[in-house]
Amino acid sequence: MLAGLTSAQNYDMDLKFALRTLSKNPGFTVLAILVMAVGIGATAAVFSVVNAVLLKPLPYADPDRIVTLSSSSRKTGMRGQVSAPDFHDWHDEATAFAAMAYYAYSDSESAVSVGSEGQYAHVATVSAEFFRVFSTKPVVGRQFSSDEEKTGSAVLISHAFSQRYFGSDVRALGQTIRMFGRTLNITGVLPPGFRFPGDTDIWFPVNTIFTDSPSRTAHNYLVVGRLKPNVSLKEAQAEMGAIGARLEREYPQAEKSHIVVVTRLSDEMVSNIRLTLFLVLAAVGVLLLIACTNMANLLLAQATVRTREIAIRSAVGASRGRIVRQLITESLTLSLIAGGVGLLLAVGGCRALVALAPSNVPRLAEASIDGRVLAFTLGISVLASLLFGLVPALQTSRVDFNNALKQSSSQAAGSFKTGGMRAALVAAEIALSFVLLIAAGLLIKSFIALHSVAIGLRPEHVLVMQTSVPASGLDGARRATRFYKDLLQEITRLPGVSTAGAARILPGRVISFGDYWIDHSGEITASTPQAVFSVVAPGTFATLGIPLNSGRDFNDNDNYDAPPTAIINQALAQKSFHGKDPIGRLIFCGFDSPLPMKIVGVVGNVRQYGPARESSPEVYMDYEQHPRTATALSILVRTPSKPAILSDVLRRMVHERSPDVPVQFTSMETSYFSSAVAPRFRAMLLGVLAGIALFLSVAGVYGVMAYVVRQKVKEIGIRMALGASSSDVLGLIFKHVLLVVGIGVALGLVGAATTTRLLASFLFEVKPSDSLTYALVALGLVLVALVAAIVPAWRAIHIDPLLALRQE
What we know:
Number of domains: 3
């Protein structure tokens, strides 16, 4: 008991002594805390996002038992959507699932009317067992009845939607919503926080407002299921593989190119962002190591002025272990304080990450500084204290107190063999910074290439007005196309409008693609070509700057009662016509009609999947001839002035014609390059981290050279007294800098060559071994290090030889 009490008292004394020591040197203390706070804060901020997106379990009962089922291409391995007939076979034959459901959801919002005014909302259509999969029930009201599942006369809404438009869940019950040309009753409100899929506001039954296609090649749905308690993922995959094989034998034309894949929902949701988050987490880990290395250098510098203190403590009986414990206590105290400051920085950093990250990152809004992040911050603070405190503590505790007591402070500082250790630490900083700078350089160069590639259109000065006309059935859809026709004619007459058009889906996104045939309709085989399907209005190509290579654009004569027409892109013309003239030929496609379409024009290629992917064959169809798919169009307006100036005028024009048509505005540039948000996020974030790392490394170079100059004052004085010139002294200083930086760059080259291969999937038209990036980073590091050594070098050449020789 006495021993325990003595030990506790010793630790209490160590802590008090550490606080007194740190308070006596406020400049050193503040600098040390800031250096570590940057590293700890950045790491904690990134971990808060990783925790929310990757580590937290999904907010459903037994989330690990919820899976997705998808149709995967045998050729590419890409997982896609599922046809309604396939789902029904899966559902009826599988025994591994307690519930299975199919649903459809679009990132684009749909037009809904609450009262007399049109709004936008995220809408999903779901099958009967959808809410059983998630073990979710309405907190107010009820789920769909069997009759409502057949007629589609009811909807469920989210808690957020009920609060926004009705003020409370209870008030929402019995109210109606109008969408897709129907008036639907609200029968229930789902629990707060439940928005799956995506940010859904409204759920309605499948195969009601929109009927299922009987074709097994119409892959229009996503599928989720809940595994039975005694069934593993592997067993479910085996069963679905057997069902898929049976369907392939029975329907070889539709099924032979696909297999069934079962994946945990949690893994599927983060599949597109997981590598990016791990990359950023690794980068901040490197930054933390650089901060620790810099901190170790600061402590070694501090140790040189505490030589006599350590020697006296050793002389009066303090053991080496006791001294090491005291020094570790000081570093731990520094680290914990830095962790607290870093936590404050992490709050702002977390908000910045949420703002900068791609909007499609699941559960990103949940990122916060919670208990797990606090524990993580405490853990890395303690770990950091050991990383930066142990080496200086061991080095300092090796002091020879007899020699130290005979020397002055400066001589004692010189007696420590810390110069080599500090130079080694700076070389390590340079190496780590080199790796970060190379990664950032490659990503930035890739991002620039992504924005410089020819995309096939001119998005600048194009205003996008997203609209959706409530419509039901063919008659309602045709009324919607007349609305758009009249609206476009009026827009083209506005002052300041060069051209105007409309598109069902904006370039940069694809939601419709499938098989096509030339001159005759045929059977689907492995060699049947595929194309992107786009629905547009006359004037769209001119508005977007897509060149018309031959033939004509759509016009007012291409209406619903006229023979169907189509325009193809150059890629399809080359693939299917091999240099022959396609004008006048017929094309069939599996879009919405089996009727042949006469090809009337050929336009230039557009990178419809975004700037990172090559152009694909594409079939354009006139919106009036395909009215069922043209009730929600994006109006495109080209203007020589700033596009946003027209927003109020266009909004007023729409609402004067129909107040229940909601509108949203963006620019074509913003819309098209939204697919480049993730590359921009990676490039910008790694660029910032690399910049911080470079700053810390430069500080390390400066500190080492200042230390070297202080140690070599007498040597420099003697050299100058014997006739050495200023250039000779500068050569001595810069030679030391180049040696340290050269070792660091060499180590960094090895590290970068090993690690940058992991970036290959993130790069566009840039190789991980890009020699120009490596050369520029290496040259830049050398130049920056030399600049950092200028102040110590200036002090060295201005040393007075007489004063230097008089020193003890």
